[in-house]
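Quick note —
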Amino acid sequence: HPSPTGLGPTVREATAGMSPGRIQDILAAVGLPSTHDAVSAVSALGGLFADRRRMAALLAELPGESREVLDRLVWGPPYGQVTHDPAAHLRAL
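Predicted structure written out below.
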């Protein structure tokens, strides 16, 4: 469902239903330290997404196919779904 701004889900919305372990895995994958709970982990991810310089550096490391997926999401809709076993270029995201 689109957000009121049309910009896609918040970090909290995107991580709703994820296990605490999965959220910690995401922190590790983006180079953030682990946290003691899921709430602080989601907050740390939100901080990362708010930091344009750090996000630009992370996105620059992605394979071209992964960046193409993000480019398509920019022009909408800003939501997508992946299967339980996504392709490698989607797992990178």
